[in-house]
Each structure stands twice: as C-alpha cells, then as structure tokens.
Amino acid sequence: MKTYKEEHKAASEFDSRTEYLENELKIMKPRRFKLNLPGRDFRFEWEDLVPALAGTLGIIAMYSSVMMAWAEGLTNAWDHITLGKEFAIEVSRVEMIIPAFLFVILASGFFNPRANLAGNHGPMIPLIASIALAGAHPLALAILIGIFGLLLSFFKGGSRLVNLTSKGVAGGLLIFLGFSGALSQIRTIQNWSMGLSSSTVEIGTMGYLGLIILAFTVILYSYLARIDKRWLAIPACAISALAIALIGGASFDLQFTTEMGLPNLNPVYWWGNTEEGWMLGLPKAQHFIASLPFAILAVAMWSPDFLGHRIFQEMNYPKKSEKVLMDVDDTMTMCSIRQMVGTAVGGGNITSSWGTYLIPAAIAKRPIPAGAILLGIMVMAVAILGSPMDVAVWPPVRSIALLVGVFLPMIEAGVQMIKQSACAQAAGVCIFMAMVTNPVLAWALAMFLDNNGLIGDRDRAKRLSRVDRLVIPLSILAICVAAVLAVGMFKGSYGIDAFL
User: Fold this and answer.
1) Distance separating alpha carbons of residues 252 and 132, to the nearest angstrom
2) Phi/psi at 481 (nearest 5 deg)?
3) Which ranges does the record mark as transmembrane (predicted)?
4) What pLDDT does 481 receive?
5) CA 289/CA 134 separation, integer angstroms
6) For 20-70, what is each residue's pLDDT tens digit?
7) How distant is the alpha carbon of residue 207 from its chain centre?
8) Is 40 strand, coil or helix?
9) pLDDT at 127
10) pTM higher than 0.90, yes or no?
11) Predicted local distance difference test score (pLDDT) of residue 370
12) DSSP tag of 105
C-alpha cells in the first residue's frame, strides 16, 4: 500500500481547489498513537488557517464564559469566596497554555490525528451555577468526568452509541441545539446593544447597532454559503461585527485590561491554599458526592455532541475518506485525560469535542492535524499576549463567532438529515422532548423509541440486537433521568426538587 507522501499530487494537477482538497482526504493514512509528521503524513494548507482562527475565537469565548460562570457561582455559594473577571481571565489563560500544548498540538496534531481536539462542553455552561450551589468542586468534577469518560471509551461505548443514534434523532438534536443556541446569541447581542451607554449616549439609544450587526451577518453568511465559502464565516463575520460596532460608536464599551505575560502556572497556587486561586483547597469526600450526578450528566452528553461533529465531517468529506474521520472513542479518551490534567494544573473548563474547530474544518474539507497545530500555537499566543482576549470576549465578536461557526451550521446539518418522512418523525419527537425536558433526556428517549420501531423507521428494530434495542437505550435513559432528577434540573420548570 502506497504511503500518503507517495500518493500526494500537487494542486496544479487538479482542475479545481476542491478536487485537490478532496484527494488529500482520500490518500491520508493517519497513524494512531504514533508520530505523524508534516510532509510525510499530512500537509499544511492555507485553508487550515480558517478553522484554526475560528477555533481560537470560539474557545476564548467559551473558556471565558465557563470561568465567569464558576466565579459567579462559587461567590454565591461560599461566604469566604469572592471571584471576579480578573480571576476568570487568568484561569482561562492557564487552560489555553498547558492543555493547548499537550492535547491540541501534541495529541491531535502529531500523535493521533483522528482524535478531535478536546475543547469546551457548551451545554454544561448554564448548569455551572447549579453545580457550584450544590457544593461541587471543579477538581472533583474533573476527576469524575475523566474516569467515566475513560471507562466509556475503553469499552467502545462512544462509537456504539453513535451507531445506535439514527439520522432522524441526530437531526432533531442538531436542530434543537442549533436553534436554541442561535436564539441565545441573538439575545446576547440585543441586550448588549440596548445596554450601551456613555457620557454622550443614553442607555438604549444604540439598540439599532445590534440589529445592523445581525442583519449584515445574515447577508454575509448567506453570500458565503452561496459561493460555497462557508468555512470563512467565523473570521469574516466576526471581523465585520467588530468593525461595525467600532464604526457605530461602541468603542467606549471595549476595554483592554489584560496585560501581556504568563498566568500563574503553579497548581499549588490554584488548589493548595484556600486564600489563593480558587480559594477552595483540595476536594474532600462530600465534594465528590455533590459532583457525581453532574459528571454522569456531562459524560452522557458527550455522545450526541461527538456524533454531531462526526456527522459534519461525513456530510462534507468525499467518499473513501473514512480514515480521516474523527474517531469517537479516541476523542473520548483524549477529552477524559485532558479534563483531569487541565483542571489539575489550575483550570476549570468542562471538556468536550471542539466544535468551533471541527465544523469549520469539515466545511473547508481539511483533516484534523495541520489546523490543530496552528490552532494550538494561536491559542497559546493569545493567552500570552493577553489583550486579544479582551477583543474576543467582546459581545458582538464572541456572539457572532458562535452564531455562524456553530449554531447556524448545526441547524443546516440537522435539516439535511431529515429529508425522509420517517427521519422527520423521529426528529420531531426529539425536538419536542428537548423542549419539554432537555437535550440529554430527549436524545435518550428518542433513541429508545426509534430503535424499537415506535417512531421513525419501523424496520430499524429488526436490524438491531436485543442489547442494542433494549438494554443499552434503557440503561442510558435510566442514567440520564437519575442524574437530571438528582441535580434538580426540573426544579425551575416543574417544581421537582433535587434528590441530593
């Protein structure tokens, strides 16, 4: 069998750039847990800059959101703790240096290009306040998530769950997550523009600025999709939003406060003294007990998250490129190890597959390794420079990057997956259940119903074993229900108190 280097052809030998990129995907042969070298196993292309930039913008926004949520939650939960923006930024910078080098550049870039980058678990961000109020500890939560994730990946549970999720259920899940996420970012931009005020501008009088940014984003995104250049959406739309906001007079709202340099990289500073860092000290037994249901919930949500990212690759990559598709179990392994290591050195991120990188990479028809290396370098550079973080977390830039880089593509992918009536039925049930409960329970229940022929394709149950039809789906459903009830996720909606 010929190697990648032997099969590689120059771009000039193809009729179009797309044909060249698709051929690259077909001839690559990534080495699993072995050293992959540029030139021998993969190449850098200028298209790799787009997902790298998109992933950098996305992860800065997500990390800062996670750390601010932890800061606010712990401040409210503990009398002796007062954490603010400075703490959140410093912890974000820790996450962007050590884990980026170990698990982005080295792991996904050189040693296992089929493992997607370990990024952020977006759906868990709204739960962080509840996690803190429940008495959980970030380090205890990270250890439990890591252990559960490694167990699932060791027994190949991730890939099996992917195979048990039909296109209808997956499509419905993508549509719901994309739609709810898009609405959230739209509201963020609206609230930001309505809240602008200065010595010369009254609060609310600049509300039109958010509408202009959103309108221009829709036009630009539609145009890029029309000319088949959607992979440019994040940098193009984010930079446009930044320019419009500055030209519109919102520059007084953009403040540069983060100085150049390295954050404190000593784990003892963050966890060893209750008067410094997180101000929590090392976790005790009660912290692990309080963290347990949230850890189960986080890992249960990995499979649908990973599934959505892999589906994006399958939809944009050509046939015969299976060797470069994201491996769900390997990605789960990397996420599990990264979760424990990243938090142990002082971080607080809740990890999952890096969607703001892989989705643009799939659209650009690029494999994982080259862009991962570039992204890791960019992320580390931004963390050291400091001031670019202030721009990336500015609401118009952050929200537009997430809107066009993650949520709109998720909606499009979901719609494309439910062309058949059977798939549409399963998707409809999944969306309805997500609205009534949450995406995790919706996925678990819809998968059980679909695999038993109660919704969707009636013949699907005939092709599955009893274990795949009943044992696994019912076990997942029971675990998800127990975790959701234990942490009190239905208290606000249905008045059901937490069991713990």
Assistant:
1) 33
2) -65, -45
3) 49-70, 131-155, 167-186, 206-224, 231-252, 288-307, 341-362, 368-387, 399-418, 424-449, 470-490
4) 84
5) 10
6) 999 999 999 999 889 999 999 999 999 999 899 888 888 888 888 888 889
7) 30
8) coil
9) 76
10) no
11) 95
12) I
Side chain identity, residue 277: G
Which residue type sits at 198?
S
3-class secondary structure, 306: helix
Residue at token pair 């713990």: 500
What residue type is 221 in one-letter code? Y
Cα angle at 180 between 336 and 174, to 5 degrees?
Answer: 60
- Asked whether 30 and 68 are in contact (CB, 8 A), the reply is no
In one-letter notation, the amino acid at residue 409 is: P
Q: Specify the 3-state DSSP secondary structure of 116.
A: coil
Quick check: 378 and 235 in contact, CB under 8 A?
no
Q: Phi first, then psi: what are they for 353, rounded to 5°?
A: -60, 140
298 vs 306: CA distance, rounded Å: 12
Q: What is the DSSP letter of 260?
A: S
Q: What tokens appear for 273 in the block?
A: 């003294």
CA pair distance 418, 170, nearest whole angstrom: 9
**Quick count: other Cβ atoms within 10 Å of Cβ 280?**
20
**Which residue type, as a one-letter code, is found at position 42?**
F
For 191-205, 314-328, 392-406, 447-461, which range has the lowest pLDDT when averaged over its residues?
A: 191-205
